[in-house]
Amino acid sequence: METERTKASLVGSILAVKRKSGKTYGQIAEETGLTNVYVAQLLRRQAQLKPETAPKLLAALPELPEELLQEMMRPPMRSHDPNLIQEPTVYRLNEAVMHFGESIKEIINEEFGDGIMSAIDFYCSVDKVKGVDGKDRVVVTFDGKYLPYTEQKTEHMVSKLRLQGN
Fold this sequence. Notes:
The chain is of the alpha+beta class. The chain has helices at residues 7-21, 25-32, 36-43, 54-60, 66-72, 88-112, 158-165; strands spanning 115-130, 136-148.
């Protein structure tokens, strides 16, 4: 279906169901057991709906047509609009990561060793809290699996082992 309809058209249809439901991403997240950001990723076709989660999503959004539900279970074309960076919230998030990135990287290396945080085995959520001054604050949590870099020894190369075995 995604080849027949544009991704934007699919996302528009899916988000129309969400809007009609009157539910927030947080409410849908509570009903499905997913994070609020993952729900948004699903509805924007940036993540694949797993078959075991589909009934929960359908219970949360009962007006979601079967054809859209089926499409959401297909691997999505993960992409972004290059103009998205111009949106002020996205720009500020990018700015924050770029500003703090070098320090975050050094702390990851200090605490874990030479490696990175996965963006695949990854959880993300957005929460609203009150600051000490009583004003609203945004908490963005990145929770990714640590992936150490591998020392690349020729003895561990499967392709080299296969070539030697022939």
